[in-house]
């Protein structure tokens, strides 16, 4: 920290200089503002602070301030004056002064002011750095979530990415379906980044992680005193996501009473903060996700039909990892590179036996489980190549299990997969007659239709939709 002192009284400058130098700061004294400005113009980045008297014969402090700011825009300027007035303060602040001191002032007052300037400059530098980092991070995130950069080696995922690319160009509500860990949040982020709203916020919330009252406050905000702990007004996620995207994960966990309020904001963009009667509006695109059977919840009355149709404008079903095994090698390579960057190490490789075991495993936890398995293997690996011995015990123990139809280990089949196979078998046994197939399954035709849509089971052209 280097300080320039300009005062036509040399003794005053010497006193101030000595006091500042005792604090460990550099200080240069000038009794002529013209000479001081010549030094500043020759080295505009050398000084951090200028302390200047207001009344000087060669040039007053206001003109010195103007010329100093032209020569070194980043320097902080402090006016010292025995003739302080409101007009002087206003004029100096308008010209860019940081503050002013009224003579006579205590040395401690000067030290406090200098430290305040130092803190302010430090915060400004930190904010500038954070802005630059955020811009860099934004570029990285946008590049990461570009549709072309998403891993989709399998035909199933190529279809999903194709749907996401189309819907990203529109403003429609999207409902992402799929098992836990299958990549719903990543796909939601990709839709946002590739949309016209990409410069707006992308906010997300797990609706199943909060109790009803707290979830309502998080979504819509609250006013001071609305409930215990509401110590100030607070905007909710719908307000904060204005002109951006709000990702509602686990939408099937929302209570019936809160579903009514969600329906309102989806229909009209209108909502009220908790404890407030004022109606507010926000323009936030909603992408919802669930691994719940919403159709079953409809029949049970646990999920509103009108909200279901409002959310289900564009449904996208993300297949589980066991149905997109062609993506596994590319995902493994991605996780190996990701870990290498995070740990500043050279990327590891994986041998053929370990890859074979990962390709054959059932992956009940989907991509999240795969990433955890790769990280486990990296930790256990003592060389530069992951081997079968490095894999988690669950994967090694699953080897040799009797596979179910389609090559999937029974131990790792989910209820949804068993249900999908049952529907396909029933349709085949019923000769593609929907009513007969529904009777074989013990469900209504409406439920069968929901399930076929959910699992993307296309009816054949000769499929009979009427009764027998």
Description:
The structure is a single chain. By secondary structure, this protein is α/β, with parallel strands linked by helices. The chain folds into 4 domains: 2-120, Response regulator (Rossmann fold); 155-319, P-loop containing nucleotide triphosphate hydrolases (Rossmann fold, 3-Layer(aba) Sandwich); 322-408, Helicase, Ruva Protein, domain 3; 414-454, Orthogonal Bundle (Arc Repressor Mutant, subunit A), CATH 1.10.10. Helices cover 48% and strands 14% of the residues. The protein has helices at residues 10-22, 33-42, 61-71, 86-94, 107-144, 155-168, 184-193, 212-220, 237-240, 256-268, 294-300, 305-311, 328-343, 352-360, 366-380, 393-397, 415-429, 434-441, 445-454, and strands spanning 2-6, 26-30, 49-53, 76-81, 99-102, 174-177, 202-206, 221-222, 234-235, 245-249, 270-271, 280-281, 285-290, 314-317, 349-350, 385-386, 403-404, 408-409. The strands form 6 sheets. Strands 2-1-3-4-5 form a 5-stranded parallel β-sheet, with helices on both faces. A 5-stranded parallel β-sheet has the order 7-10-13-6-14. Helix 10 (256-268) crosses helix 12 (305-311) and helix 18 (434-441) crosses helix 19. The longest helix has 38 residues, at 107-144. The protein is elongated and about 105 Å long. The model is unreliable at 136-143, 402-411 and 460-468 (pLDDT under 50).
